[in-house]
Specification:
heterodimer, A: mainly alpha, MetI-like fold, B: four-stranded antiparallel sheet, 25% strand, binds adenosine-5'-triphosphate, binds magnesium ion
Amino acid sequence: MSSSVVPPNLTPEDFEVEYSEEASLPPEDPSLSPSVWIQKNLFSSPSSAVLTVVFSVIAVLTIRGLLAFILGEERQWDAIATNSRLMAAQGYPLDQFVRIWVAFGSLIGLAGFSAAIFRASGTISLKRIAIWVMNIGVAAGVIGLLAPLSSSGRMGWIIAALVVFGVGAAIWFGFGEERRRSTFIPSIWVLSGFALIGVISLWVVPYGHYFLGEDGRATVEEGTVAFSTQMPWTVMWAILVVSHLVGLAVRDRLPAQASKGFLGLLWVIAPFVANWIILRDPDFDYDHVFSTDIPMALAFIVIGGAVLWAQSSSTIGETGRLLAIAILLAAVYTWVSRIEFLDFLPNWSMLQKARLSMLFLGLYGLAASNFSRDNATRRAYVAGWVIFMVIFHWLVTAVNSPSTLNIQSDTYLGGFTLTLFIAWLTLLVSFPIGVVMALGRTSNLPIFRLLSTGYIEIIRGVPLITILFFFANILLFFLPEGMEIAKVAAVVIGYGLFSAAYLAENVRGGLQSIRRGQFEAADALGLTTSQRTAFIVLPQALRVSIPPLVGQAIATFKETALVAIIGLNDFLRIANNTIPAQTDFVGAKREGLLIVSAIYFVVAFSMSKYSQRLEKRLGLGTR
Amino acid sequence: MTANMSASGMELGRADMIVSDGVDKWYGDFQALKGVTAQVAEREVVVVLGPSGSGKSTWIRCINRLEVHQGGTIAVDGVELTNDTRNIDKIRSDVGMVFQQFNLFPHLTVMDNITLAPRWVRKQPKAEAETKAMELLERVGIPEQAAKFPGQLSGGQQQRVAIARSLAMEPRIMLFDEPTSALDPEMISEVLEVMKDLARGGMTMMVVTHEMGFAREVADRIIFMESGEIVEVGTPEHFFTNPTEDRTKLFLSQIL
Ligand SMILES: Nc1ncnc2c1ncn2[C@@H]1O[C@H](COP(=O)(O)OP(=O)(O)OP(=O)(O)O)[C@@H](O)[C@H]1O
Ligand SMILES: [Mg+2]
């Protein structure tokens, strides 16, 4: 036996493997001098020389045309500047805007903290930073040379280009070859550095602010476009940096697994909480709360708890499962039947609560046999139900109370915020459904296979826009009496169900890539089918599916643009319809569309970049 | 055939751990096992030999229900294998299996590979399972690899982890299906050493292998199969020096 000194009481942190993108540095290619490089790559033969020249000319003309388009005299960029708030959040009341900032700030804080805990930030070598900065300088120089500018404007661009390039060169030459390649800066600091430059510019650069007056006319204001946002953006920046620093400081003191799980949970509920902060401020009717809401919640807590306690007893056997199924069927019956056996309940909100609670009780009860180990486990199981019921009843009561925020249902939200909400919620809805469908399609039980395959094939045979129309307009007529649903919610459900079918196919690809030996090893160890799926099969399948899943997330994000067609005001619709219809900016469509494309591109591109990092980190393709 | 069953459990004075009685198995129209009848006694080490395609793997995999047999009966420690999932669970928790291709879980560390089943099937507390896992890794000689992922280990090390993973469930029987066939020659002995150690410790073992040295040294009995049938059963001495069946002699002449 080897004389190892590994202590027996290892914790998972001890098994964490530090991933680094560039663990050891390979020797650098002997660098060619620029002239040699050009000769070797661009002018190696007469034909390649011709091609190089032709394509250079085409490139120069294209860039020039694009710059002329962007910087042309006739462009009305003030249409965007004036409407930036509209594009961000549509008609959200001005005096309540702080809610959006609070929601956004919480997300940023969560992001900064999570980046530290998950060690999600990559590193960038000084060498690459220097190259980046120099490239930015070159880009500015190209703009300065090619754009249709006044001569003073051109001078300004060129000077700026030289300064930026100089900074890059200073980083390059300020550090020796060795230090340049072996000094790594966390990319989150580099990004915050760039963000800081942006934030500072809000304070010092007069972007030109246009204020839309009462009479609907735009007045040019002194100051900057960020007049009202320079402070909030500064705070946002500070939140990002501080939360990341706090995360770095505490991450070694927190139990890694538990804190990651907790943060993951926070990310799942984050869109709902953000939605909540932005849209709701419930005005509880306390008489009603005490006379009906609380008694009802207590009834479900006590009776449901007792039922679950019985179901999780180790001696109940198959009876417990049958009981759960009976409750489930009863709950479903209250949804589909027009004859209500819950008719005695005073109002619709109570009925809704009773139905949903029964549904949850049935579902929760199905899992009871997994918790029959000992009384402590059973208590934890029932406690889970109690906590869930408290949150659920509070939530439904709050949703059903009028909100002090007087915002109308469908138009309250719009612009980029709406795009983000729909994309995020759709992904959240589609992920579990898609995974379940994929498992169903590969299941041994014919009925599951049939149902999942049918679902997937039907959905994949129908265009998304049809499904969106259906859910936005027709679904309402199929709902049980008294039930309403906002258009946004209908869209998210429809889009989520659509997306789930495609997600299922991606996950199925991953499932099929798992070798039979993995199943056999799990079986031989005595794992149950659900344990095998949860611990062995799904983790591996999802890892393999990351590239297609991210591709799909990007597609989902981009295709939210379709909601414009069914009358939701996402930021594409605002750019395409709303802004060009304003008296001051008649026909100013191109500016908005260009900005919208740029934003779509930036978000999609960052997602794709992040997935590449994730793949590398999880060691895909190197296994 | 029965005449050759020299040392069944009754004669050794120990209980039979595995009883395979007239086991038949078809793949479609092809009969892979034809009435396979044999017993393995407690603490006995049985080596199964036979040419490729003779049904060795099929038989040993029937014993922990990775394959379903269609005729005859299999009983492990008195529990008969039927479609009753409780019996299957009971038997799987008593029987460990080591595969030719190791089949470690590539997304889990060595430590997690070993502790997963004890924690979720045996419901052991994490700390206890990890202490136990470290002991097992000591026993198979690679405690320093606990934090690594399977992909970072050599084949021999992976197979030793696979053995430790099976042992963590505290099985009473270990099945080995060609545990060294996928290994480079220089790693075979490190795995065989671990297996010999197990045998000396009194584990009941059924081993499919082509390692004749191991069979000669460790086996209590050798079962020779061909075309889905048991052809000859005997002690290593009988088997290697004085086989009675012609097919056995032919097989030995080809491999020795
Ligand atoms: N899943 C299967 N489907 C169809 N035929 C199979 C299957 N598995 C095994 N067989 C056949 O059953 C017979 C016995 O196979 P088995 O794997 O048990 O042989 P073996 O003795 O282990 O051979 P080897 O030494 O090559 O591992 C072979 O003829 C094989 O082709
Ligand atoms: Mg085999």
